[in-house]
Amino acid sequence: AWSEESEKMIQTFQTEFHGHSVKFSPFHENMLAVATAQNFGIVGNGKLHILDVSPQGIREIANFPTMDGLYDCAWSEESEKMIQTFQTEFHGHSVKFSPFHENMLAVATAQNFGIVGNGKLHILDVSPQGIREIANFPTMDGLYDCAWSEESENHVAVACGDGTVKLYDITSMQPRPVRSWAKHAKEVVSVDWNLQQKDLFLTGSWDNSIMLWSPNIPQELSIFLAHTAKVYAVKWAPHSPDQFASVSSDQMLHIWDKRINTPQQSIHAHDYEVLDCDWNKYNENIIVTGAVDSTLRVWDIRNPVEPISNLHAHNYAVRKVKCSPHSSSLIGSVSYDKTFRLWNWEREDALVDVFSLHTEFVIGVDFNLFIPGQVATCAWDSQVVVRNMEQTIAV
To answer: Which of 281, 313, 312, 314 is nearest to 297 (CA)?
Structure first.
């Protein structure tokens, strides 16, 4: 006789390699670790799988490939907070850790996937006890990006779908911004604060333009026009007060000097739309791009004839890339394939880890400057996920 209560008497999950060990988490009733080995453990690679077991089925949260087979695994009895989550009202578009406080995180969100509707800026406190909201600021249009001021620890700039740029004081009891600029003709999708000259920031827009701003001046300081299609990202070089990069739907990576209105260099970075870029924090000549072609490319701008590394593993467009502040070789990327991937671009086998922690397109990613191994992501599933990658399971 079949049970009238439970249809899920038996659940299964297929691993790539042969199973050797399974261990339930001592902290979470639904979390399971599985150690596997290729070719029955005789020779070959291994992989650690982290699974979520629920009445709806078994899904993979993350996996960690190894160069040799894995025969056993054990959860740490000390740390349960490998993964923390926070649910936002709208869909996530950008996450940024504070450059002043190790536990503070800004999240830019937009209603209806950013197509139409309102937005909200969330300020979160991330601690071992969990994630809690400190403040939130609703907006009339969706938010596509955010950036902490490098000058004031309480100021956050946001890029808005109505073409405005707004600056918020997170300690204010008022929901209104302390300043608002309305100069772009279309959606503003990128904002970045100068790390050296800390009274300046940049914005990039779908009106094909880039604008330079100061928080105390009511109009733009400069306009940079060279892209022939939507600008997706602008990033200041961390080693220079004057140099910045931009990428666009026109497939180009431009390197600029803010004192000159034409690019210093123009690199045909991909054969498809380029959606993001980021500078290496340890080498002033290295920059990474991510594109619709599902690849990341690492460039040395001294010799940009071809990339020095091509990173292939994502299944769909690479939405954001981020160079680690703690390593010259590590890069994080998120994609429409719903994953975060960690790369070591100096290795031949560059893919280090894959985390499948979201159920929708992953749009935002950032590393914590103060806590090595801590990374935040946000996605269109309205989840903010903070992952401590250094807190691992012994295998």
So the answer is: 312
Q: Rounded to whole angstroms, how far apart are CA atoms 92 and 145? A: 10
Contacts of 105 (CB under 8 A, 6+ apart): 95, 96, 97, 98, 123, 124, 125, 126, 131, 366, 376, 384, 386
Helix, strand or coil, per DSSP, at residue 40: helix
Beta bridge partners, 95, equal 107
Residues in Cβ contact with 345 at an 8 Å cutoff, skipping those fewer than 6 apart: 288, 296, 298, 309, 311, 329, 331
Helices and strands in the chain: count of H runs, count of E runs:
0, 32
Q: pTM, whole model, 2 decimals?
A: 0.82
395 residues of the chain, pLDDT tens digit each = 666 666 667 899 999 999 999 999 887 788 899 999 999 999 999 999 999 898 889 988 778 778 889 999 998 765 555 788 999 999 999 999 999 999 999 999 999 988 899 999 999 999 988 899 999 999 999 999 999 999 999 999 999 999 999 999 999 988 899 999 999 999 999 999 999 999 999 999 999 999 999 999 999 999 999 999 999 999 999 999 999 999 999 999 999 999 999 999 999 999 999 999 999 999 999 999 999 999 999 999 999 999 999 999 899 999 999 999 999 999 999 999 999 999 999 999 999 989 988 999 999 999 999 999 999 999 999 999 999 876 444 45
Side-chain half-sphere exposure of 194, counting CA atoms within 13 A: 19
Print burial letters for 328-357: b (CB count within 10 Å at least 16), e (below 16): ebbbbbbbbbbbbbbbbbeeeebebbbbbb
What is the distance between the alpha carbons of residues 329 and 168, in angstroms, rounded to a whole number? 34
Rounded Cα gap, residues 372 and 374, in angstroms = 6
> Counting beta carbons within 10 angstroms of the beta carbon of residue 394, is it exposed (0 to 12), middle (13 to 18) or buried (19 or more)?
exposed
Give the SS3 label for residue 38.
helix
Distance of CA 341 to the CA centre of its chain: 10
Q: Are 119 and 161 in contact (CB under 8 A)?
A: yes
